[in-house]
Amino acid sequence: MSIPAFGLGTFRLQGQVVIDSVRTGLELGYRTVDTAQIYENEAEVGEAIAASGIPREELFITSKIWVANFAGGRLIESLKESLQKLRTDYLDLTLIHWPSPEDQVPVAEFMGALLEAKRLGLTRQIGVSNFTVDLMKQAIAAVGAENIATNQIELHPYLQNRKVVEFAQSQGIHITSYMTLAYGEVLKDPVVEQIADRLQATPAQVTLAWAMQSGYAVIPSSTKRANLASNLKACELKLSEADMALIAGLDRGHRLTSPEGLAPLWD
Fold first, then answer.
1. Please, what are the domains in the chain?
2. Which positions are catalytic?
3. Whole-angstrom Cα distance, residue 109 to residue 95?
4. Residues 4-60 pLDDT 10s
5. Theoretical Cys-Cys bridge with 176: which of 72, 75, 112, 217, CB 3.0 to 4.6 Å?
6. Side-chain half-sphere of 92: how many Cα atoms within 13 Å?
7. How far is CA 228 from the centre of its chain?
């Protein structure tokens, strides 16, 4: 089992907007879709997938368990509810969305429940999101590194999260980058623009290609057909070692998401 390098994100997209985005993405050739319980769009994502007529085995569907569903046997029940909304018998990947606030539910408890969901066939793979090195160590102690497919983290040229990446990779845990374009901030970066001009590509394509060539999976989202189609072309773009080094030099520890009450003590 592996994590597809390129997928479609649905964060902040709801209602008809997310239906249209997923439908268009699937028409264009996307086959990996990332959602979450807290996005409150699983039913719409499921509707768009069902309407596409694409065989289930050709798709890779990810969702994430919200923190309110960690305790008291709630995790598996909430996952079953997600499956109903998504109109599927299983997920390809199920993640813990954020660590439990103030460690109210121990890592071992919710990771154990997630592993049980895997054993029950509700999900093919399991993983984590927004986990620090310490939290990954706790998760590994609970279920083994071999059962943690990925850590999905904020990662873009301005926040390269190297400590987390290095530890995860040392354990064979894949990295999935979210906010790869830093809400569009890196698209205006002179270094990225210069590389894009030289390669006759867009800054978004360059940034996504940089992440994939670095070994990360990416899940960019868009509501515009042209952008969805353009982003997909990042899979064909190849950056030189010099270009990769230039982008690696943009790291400035610029974190864009750190919700109060949810965010752990970042590395």
1. 8-182+216-222 (3.20.20.100)
2. 39
3. 14
4. 999 999 999 999 999 999 999 999 999 999 999 999 999 999 999 999 999 999 999
5. 217
6. 18
7. 16
